[in-house]
Amino acid sequence: MENKYLGMTVNERLYVSGLMDKFEKAIEKRDIEKVIAILKTVELNDASIKPILANHGLTI
User: What top-level branch of life does the organism fall under (predicted)?
Assistant: First the structure.
């Protein structure tokens, strides 16, 4: 399985995938499940997702 986002930052992944607005709205609503789903869509793993959630004051 090829990672099409290899070498991109999280913001770059969200922008290229067209999910930046959905991600920001999910963060504003504190919808953790939606945030996680979006981050998994841009091929981030659980180990990468946890610090992102923590950075936004969200925990699972």
Answer: Bacteria
